[in-house]
Amino acid sequence: MKEISMRKIIVNLMGVMIGRAVFAGINPIGIAFFTAVYIDKKGRLAILISVLLGMATVYPVTEVVKYSIVMTVIAIIVILLEYSNKRLPIGAVAGVSGGVTMFMSIANGLLKVNAKDYILMGIAEGIAIFALTFIFRKGVEAIVFSTKGQALDNEQIISIAVILAAFIYGIPNVGVLDFSLTLTAALFSILLIGYKYGAGYGAIAGAACGIILALKDGQINQIGLMCMLGIIAGTFRELGRLFTIAVYSVGVFFLSDLYQNYKFDLNSLGALVSTAAIFLLMPKSLLLKIDLARDESQEDVFVKQNIQNIARGKLKDFSSSFHNLSDTFTSITEKKGKLSKKDKSELFDELTEQLCKDCTNCDTCWKNNFYETYQGAHHIMEEVDKNGTIAVSEVPVDFAGRCIQLERYVVEARRVLEVAKLNLAWNNRLAESREAIAGQLNEVANIIDDFSMDLYKTSDTSEGMQKRIIYQLKEYHIIVSRMAILEKRNNKQEIFMIARTEKGRCITTKEAAQLVGDAFGKRMRPADGCKNVLTKEFETFVFVEDADYKVFTGMAKMTKDGGRISGDNFSFLYPDSGMVVMTLADGMGTGETAFEESEYVVDLLEQFIEAGFRKESAINLINSILVLKAEEQSFSTIDMTVINLFTGVCDIIKIGASTTFIKRSKEVETINSNTLPVGVINHMDYETISRKLSDGDFVVMVTDGVIDCIPGEEKEQFLEEFISELRMNNPQEIANAVLNQALELNGWVPKDDMTVLAAGFWKKLN
């Protein structure tokens, strides 16, 4: 923080000189510099005094008063605007500054003789302030907040060059003992920028300083001279300080001779010697050469994006493999409702082969009376298949008269058909299992597909935005070593950073999130699981976009017959910063068995949703798992409400579940669904019903035990009217009121396990 304070002092000293930069009687440069620095909340009074002090050295009292009023009005307006909006964009501040100055200059000009000229100058001054504020702000951020050795972008370097030029323009023409302060500042600025950032930026600094010197003493040739000096400083910087200053000095002598109108006198020599001395005595840490030719950040982004594309391609391949495997299981899945004619024919052949082949009466039956014997045997098989058995008296007379093993034939027919039906049942069960496995494999493939789409991508946020966040945090004693802004599938951004505090300070991540949000222009909060405090050690912190809405919940329940265990289970889940999932499951029956079924369903849903599965995939997987449970069939209802806290959209999924009510002021909407519970069949039908919630709406979910306690036929309508008359805003009170009303109508005796969930939906205040 001491380093930043020193930089602030330097900026304020520059403000004194820039405040002196009067051009054609107006001072847009000083006001723009004041505005660019005033955007930072710390040190505002100091920069106002510094710029005014500089103006006081060149302006008469009336003009100083005018500009002091201008800056005071600007300060008041900015503070008032900040009160309603925590961070103003630079365009708004620049507009306020330019507009106030333009208004004051025009008002002042109307009182003078040549009013038209003053009005035009006032308009020009306002426009110039608006533009220069943007230019100066980039340089101010770099001067105050950049770290040692940090690569500055093109805009920042150009801005610094313009600030230095304005600073030089404001230096008074003082020449003492063959020493020109203005020329020294110009030569040193060109040498420093060229040495640190290269020939290109040295030339830019030279052009800026040359223009300023030309405006001060009228020697236009200085512009070309200073540009060439900047190129020399950048070209030879790799050879070290001594060689660079030597070549730079030689360049000053020779180029001065080439530009015939430029006078290189003792003042120039003194300025050059002073520049060389200061440059050679500067600490090495301030002269770190920065190579801007290679944009490593863009290359890093390119590498990350290619790695993501490769990972996404591999996941697509895995997904395709699981889809193919699912298709294979589906193709070998065939269920039969009953034995086919072919199956019966094979059983008939097996039975006759087994009993008749070695029978002494075989020729009589199958050679001499084939047709009658076949008809009789077929009749026995059909009757046994149809009724499970057949009496001897029901056997055709001709067949019974010839068959000497009739009773054994009937017994064997019954046994063979029972075995065949048992095998059919097991084959169907195996087919159901294959079908369920095929469904699971298909859902796994869908999950992998979905996961490939959920891979974070590098955000298109500009590098300037990252630097703005870093500067904002540094102003409040937080040092950021690395930062990445990533974008999720829903276009919401997350900021990852490695950061620490200065000088043992402790700052909460909630406070840091507010600072990040102010700079980022979005409401941010610490991610779940993020540490609560930033300390002096570098650690990783994650900040996510905060939702626009919030939800508060309530729950009320009652067990049947005062039992200790309820067959209903529920869950309030917050898988990320922008979603709330309310789940209500009702196991079949009551007691411990129903409790285990519903608890199993809710636990699986929580695990799948927290793992990032889509709600549809989670439900399909749970259904297939319940279908595959071996000995006992396990059923449970699922009532799920998913609320998006960014958009306010509420998705309601009902699988065998009871009614859901959405309360909007005095209006209540009832949502029903007629579907089977999970675990009954493989191919489960359900639908998702979407509704848009508004500020102050409530969602009420109930199990069928609540509905059953209401007498009459129009149970849902009665409950709908009751909820519409409720005037309370506490979700817990609403849940209690609904449960108590249902119990009261049934004499305070529950017919079944009863559970009520309520959620209130509100918009967050800015």
Automatic annotation (TrEMBL):
Q: Which GO terms describe its molecular function?
A: protein serine/threonine phosphatase activity
Signal peptide limits: none
Q: Which Pfam families match?
A: SpoIIE, SpoIIE_N
Which InterPro entries does the entry mention? Bact_Sigma-Reg, PPM-type-like_dom_sf, PPM-type_phosphatase-like_dom, SpoII_E, SpoIIE_N
Q: Where are the transmembrane segments?
A: 21-39, 67-84, 90-111, 118-136, 156-172, 201-218, 239-256, 268-287
Q: Can you give the residue ranges of the PPM-type phosphatase domain?
A: 552-761
Highest taxon of source: Bacteria
What keywords is this UniProt entry annotated with? Hydrolase, Membrane, Transmembrane, Transmembrane helix
The protein's name in its UniProt record? Stage II sporulation protein E
